[in-house]
Amino acid sequence: MTVNGAASREGTAQAEVTAEAVGRVLGTQAASPLSFWVGLEPGKVVQLDDVVVTRRDVPGYGPVLVAGVVTTVEARHEGAAYDSDVFLIADGALPAAVVEVAEVRVTRVEPEVFVPPLPGSKVFLASAGDRDQALYFDVMDRRIPIGMGRDGQPLYANFDFLDGTRGAHVSISGVSGVATKTSFATFLLYSIFNSGVLAGEAANTKALIFSVKGEDLLFLDHDNLRLDEKARIAYARLGLPAKPFGSVHVFAPPRPGDPNGVPHVSARTQGVSSFFWTLTEFCEEELLRFVFADADDERAGYSLLVGQVAARLKSWAEPVGDGGAVMVQGTACRTFSDLVELLSDQLQDEGTRQQWTGAQTPLGTVNAFLRRLRSAVRALSPIVRGDLPFYRNHSVKTSDAQVSIVDLHNLPERAQRFVVGVVLRGEFHRKESSGTARPLLFVVLDELNKYAPREGDSPIKEILLDVAERGRSLGVILIGAQQTASEVERRIVSNSAVRVAGRLDPAEAARSEYGWLPPAVRERATIAKPGTMFVAQPEIPVPLAVAFPFPAWATRPAEAAAQPVKAGADPFQGLPGVEEDIPPF
Questions:
Q1: What is the rounded average pLDDT for all residues in the chain?
Q2: CB-based burial label for 87 (10 Å; 0-12, 13-18, 19+)
Q3: Which segments does the entry list as coiled coil (predicted)?
Q4: Architecture of domain 144-274+395-559
């Protein structure tokens, strides 16, 4: 016991010699096991987010480490009584001392002997080992780098809270265009794929990204021409290679009016496929409900009618030819407009209406349903059709590449909702049927407040709630981004183990949804620069201020370096081949 105690005191003394002393625990402010104040020595400076440690020798326990993060720094004149005294003090006419103090929020006490640090005890900037201990990095068996701290050292997240082992899902909030939410989400994915934390599962782990901001996310597999040496050094310090994503496939909707279904993208030609659903699939899979995917639709009186009509289409629609067309009640439908016109005729006819509705339905309800359905024709016609060869690949799937990007920016909002709902349902059912959570599927969805609003219900919201509540056990991890977390369904946000905030609107920052941010951090979030995120995870009592490096992959077409053409690669990949053209007869 004596030997161990002596060795422990010797180690403590050695740590104090190597660490930089910045001040002493104040005696004019009450110190507690949860927080304390530090008076800084002359010439010493600490800033917000610095990690500091102090020690106390507790009888019967030995040295106790008290570590924390600086949350407030203040400077004042000691001896001044009035605001105007500052001028007299500056001129040397009034004696006063400049005093700097810092508030420290305790993050860890080791061993867990919760006693306050003693006034007058020396406080040190945390050395490498103490810093890891203060921020719980030493107990993270599987950790991924999430960026750099203000001290220039790497910060980590515990992967156990991302892959479903102890928690799952990420919620990212911030002002659009300033908070860099999407950039951080892609960096987080890149870190997961390249940090080695996935080990042998890396090749089979997939990511599905829904892109709504132009063609900015279509070049993740291209080098960024703006990457400089400073950013390369940052990647090296994080233990990550400074390179783009290695395996990316893009899915885009067909160009409107194009008989060949060419993908509607302009800047990228390789690794792009068009996606759409045939009328056969639309009827067999009861996709009609995703045409009415708005929360207002669910509150309307025709929500029951949607289910009835979808069930009739599933029963009565028969495939015609090889283009995905259907025959319903003796009428052939080759376009979405044809199908809508058929439903309109059938539901407005007194003789056939009850066959479709299954019960006596007021004409007003039927007309409301048809008005909403007709308004979807223009939006959905390019992606719901029966006029393209049925055998060609047209489905969004994650098996083609490690990162699959679904480009939505050329679609109207109505069609975007349809695509998100149908694709998410398909991937979630695929994971359910596989019977195992591995390999993982990460889903990145921006504008979450649009797809899972706090008020109302919709088919998409049901799926996202299912992902949030059951996705952890199925290996489906949601990385959701939104401008306003206060407008997102509470259960989705509350099920997110990792929460991130970038630049916040002052009114939004005052909402209760950001209670995980201490008051000082909330204020800082309203002035945060792009690239700075505040990350909270269950193991660490305080959010970490993280600066993630400049993307090594192109974030817009102008940044994309040309890719070398691989031997044997088809330079016309992404364009329709001869066998995919519609025959002229």
A1: 87
A2: exposed
A3: none
A4: 3-Layer(aba) Sandwich (3.40)
